[in-house]
Amino acid sequence: MANRWRNTLTTADVTPEAMFLNRRQVMAGAAAMGLGLTAAPLRAATGLEPNSYEDITSYNNYYEFGTGKEDPARNAGQLTTDPWTIKIDGLVEKPGDYVLSDLIPQMTTEERIYRFRCVEAWSMVVPWNGFELADLLDLVGVKPEAQYVAFETLYRPEEMPGTRFPVLDWPYREGLRLDEARHPLTLLATGIYGKPMPNQNGAPIRLVVPWKYGFKYIKSITRITLTDKQPKTSWNMANAREYGFYSNVNPQVDHPRWSQATERRIGGGLFARREPTLMFNGYDEVASLYEAMDLRKNF
Amino acid sequence: MIQQINSRVRQIPNWALYLLGAVPVVWLYVQGFQNALGPDPVDAIEHRLGLWALWLLIAGLCISPIQRNTPLRLLKLRRPIGVLAFMYVLVHFLTWLVLDVQIPSQIWADIVKRPYVTVGMVAMLLLLPLALTSNDWSIRKLGSKWRQLHWLVYPAVILAAIHMILQAKGFQLEPMIYLVVVLVLVGVRRTPLYLRR
Ligand code: HEM
């Protein structure tokens, strides 16, 4: 793990009283999960505070549980996430059904505090716990012909009331180019605030790609397929004009429904001011992945 | 029973209806100030006011078919319902403008570039002259033109339902149901059932 991505935001950046409690929960939760987080060194505040656990777990887009923001928190409780297996297939050396509880001990789980930017022009800051997708790809062995990674969400209508109507063409699908998937920023997250991933946030395991819009962060992953063709992705299938395959956060390329130049930080109350949206959501280190590309065409 | 309802309705003073109609919007904003609407109060208020506006417009469309086909006499409620519907549209719009979009240059860009906003805007502008002429003086003054003018409520409500469909993401059932209800209520005015009596 030579050049792993280094976190510049830690919970130590956070001082308000409300967060103090949460921080204690983080430590307790982390200890319980055996994550062994060491005390982060105190740094000057960066101005970015993670949203509260409450915010992050009560304001979700997870259409398998309903299209309202409160629906997932209300309806996802019944989801069975244990046992959980991920089918890994396609252009890999070791295809198979991987049991999550066997997989996690083999991975390096760490805390990553990332900005989260939804395509609907709102944003949060989330302290994820997870491991780099690249590590999993190394474990299963990617064949040289592979160029893309396709993902699928669980589709289980008995437990997912939102899937009884074809809001989208279920199961939910997402995809990344292999170099995006291998980028050290890209995580498979298994928790938030040191606690196991809540169902409404995509338990037990979801993707996190912080320089892309939130709908790329596919939840409750049951299948990962390495391919040589660009995979189909759900929102692109539903409306190709509005949702591109790449969907990188880009303040210069407007979505037909929302200007992407600014965003509203969730948790700021009734009078929160809009803030400028940053290219690649502020993660400039990914710019080199797209050097030769017209990001207006490949939105 | 019906007689009782009719006489009760006749007795309700208009100011009481307006007061009652203001309760949801005031309550929403009180909750918003108290941070009791979840992590994103702006979104919550915007959406619920949109729904209230549409419910009131639909309620307004129900009055005249009820008047013609049942012994219930609710016509007196139509004006307060209509004026309140417009108030909800206006506060829905102002919430979007002041608390959501905020930035003046972006407001105009959104109105011309985002079809769901454009359609909502047209619906609101169609309702404006109706709200302004919902008084006895205008009815007297405009004579037969008043009826012609208030015919605009039909395209306005249809556009409002289309606005709801356009703002929904993916293929959703609820906005379709609203559009069907609206189309039935407008369509019924062209059927013999409605022209009877
Ligand atoms: C007759 C006029 C209007 C009616 C009846 C109406 C009604 C609605 C309804 C029912 C919704 C969906 C609420 C939900 O499903 O939760 C909605 C959403 C919305 N409306 Fe309107 N509306 C009207 C005019 C306008 C105008 C003039 C604007 C702004 C210029 C506007 C901006 C919005 C916005 C921003 C949303 C939310 C979209 C989103 O969250 O993506 N509406 N409206």
TrEMBL record, chain A:
<feature type="binding site">
    <location>
        <position position="153"/>
    </location>
    <ligand>
        <name>Mo-molybdopterin</name>
    </ligand>
</feature>
<dbReference type="Pfam" id="PF00174">
    <property type="entry name" value="Oxidored_molyb"/>
</dbReference>
<dbReference type="InterPro" id="IPR036374">
    <property type="entry name" value="OxRdtase_Mopterin-bd_sf"/>
</dbReference>
<dbReference type="InterPro" id="IPR006311">
    <property type="entry name" value="TAT_signal"/>
</dbReference>
<comment type="function">
    <text>Part of the MsrPQ system that repairs oxidized periplasmic proteins containing methionine sulfoxide residues (Met-O), using respiratory chain electrons. Thus protects these proteins from oxidative-stress damage caused by reactive species of oxygen and chlorine generated by the host defense mechanisms. MsrPQ is essential for the maintenance of envelope integrity under bleach stress, rescuing a wide series of structurally unrelated periplasmic proteins from methionine oxidation.</text>
</comment>
<dbReference type="GO" id="GO:0046872">
    <property type="term" value="F:metal ion binding"/>
</dbReference>
<comment type="similarity">
    <text>Belongs to the MsrP family.</text>
</comment>
<feature type="binding site">
    <location>
        <position position="60"/>
    </location>
    <ligand>
        <name>Mo-molybdopterin</name>
    </ligand>
</feature>
<feature type="binding site">
    <location>
        <position position="206"/>
    </location>
    <ligand>
        <name>Mo-molybdopterin</name>
    </ligand>
</feature>
<feature type="binding site">
    <location>
        <begin position="63"/>
        <end position="64"/>
    </location>
    <ligand>
        <name>Mo-molybdopterin</name>
    </ligand>
</feature>
<comment type="subunit">
    <text>Heterodimer of a catalytic subunit (MsrP) and a heme-binding subunit (MsrQ).</text>
</comment>
<dbReference type="InterPro" id="IPR000572">
    <property type="entry name" value="OxRdtase_Mopterin-bd_dom"/>
</dbReference>
<dbReference type="GO" id="GO:0043546">
    <property type="term" value="F:molybdopterin cofactor binding"/>
</dbReference>
<feature type="domain" description="Oxidoreductase molybdopterin-binding">
    <location>
        <begin position="80"/>
        <end position="235"/>
    </location>
</feature>
<keyword id="KW-0560">Oxidoreductase</keyword>
<dbReference type="GO" id="GO:0016672">
    <property type="term" value="F:oxidoreductase activity, acting on a sulfur group of donors, quinone or similar compound as acceptor"/>
</dbReference>
<keyword id="KW-0500">Molybdenum</keyword>
<feature type="binding site">
    <location>
        <position position="118"/>
    </location>
    <ligand>
        <name>Mo-molybdopterin</name>
    </ligand>
</feature>
<keyword id="KW-0479">Metal-binding</keyword>
<dbReference type="InterPro" id="IPR022867">
    <property type="entry name" value="MsrP"/>
</dbReference>
<dbReference type="GO" id="GO:0030091">
    <property type="term" value="P:protein repair"/>
</dbReference>
<keyword id="KW-0732">Signal</keyword>
UniProtKB/TrEMBL annotation, chain B:
<keyword id="KW-0813">Transport</keyword>
<keyword id="KW-0479">Metal-binding</keyword>
<feature type="domain" description="Ferric oxidoreductase">
    <location>
        <begin position="49"/>
        <end position="160"/>
    </location>
</feature>
<keyword id="KW-0285">Flavoprotein</keyword>
<feature type="transmembrane region" description="Helical">
    <location>
        <begin position="176"/>
        <end position="195"/>
    </location>
</feature>
<keyword id="KW-0349">Heme</keyword>
<dbReference type="InterPro" id="IPR022837">
    <property type="entry name" value="MsrQ-like"/>
</dbReference>
<feature type="transmembrane region" description="Helical">
    <location>
        <begin position="80"/>
        <end position="99"/>
    </location>
</feature>
<dbReference type="GO" id="GO:0005886">
    <property type="term" value="C:plasma membrane"/>
</dbReference>
<keyword id="KW-0812">Transmembrane</keyword>
<keyword id="KW-1133">Transmembrane helix</keyword>
<feature type="transmembrane region" description="Helical">
    <location>
        <begin position="151"/>
        <end position="170"/>
    </location>
</feature>
<protein>
    <recommendedName>
        <fullName>Protein-methionine-sulfoxide reductase heme-binding subunit MsrQ</fullName>
    </recommendedName>
</protein>
<dbReference type="GO" id="GO:0009055">
    <property type="term" value="F:electron transfer activity"/>
</dbReference>
<feature type="transmembrane region" description="Helical">
    <location>
        <begin position="12"/>
        <end position="30"/>
    </location>
</feature>
<feature type="transmembrane region" description="Helical">
    <location>
        <begin position="50"/>
        <end position="68"/>
    </location>
</feature>
<comment type="similarity">
    <text>Belongs to the MsrQ family.</text>
</comment>
<comment type="function">
    <text>Part of the MsrPQ system that repairs oxidized periplasmic proteins containing methionine sulfoxide residues (Met-O), using respiratory chain electrons. Thus protects these proteins from oxidative-stress damage caused by reactive species of oxygen and chlorine generated by the host defense mechanisms. MsrPQ is essential for the maintenance of envelope integrity under bleach stress, rescuing a wide series of structurally unrelated periplasmic proteins from methionine oxidation.</text>
</comment>
<dbReference type="GO" id="GO:0020037">
    <property type="term" value="F:heme binding"/>
</dbReference>
<keyword id="KW-0288">FMN</keyword>
<keyword id="KW-0408">Iron</keyword>
<dbReference type="GO" id="GO:0010181">
    <property type="term" value="F:FMN binding"/>
</dbReference>
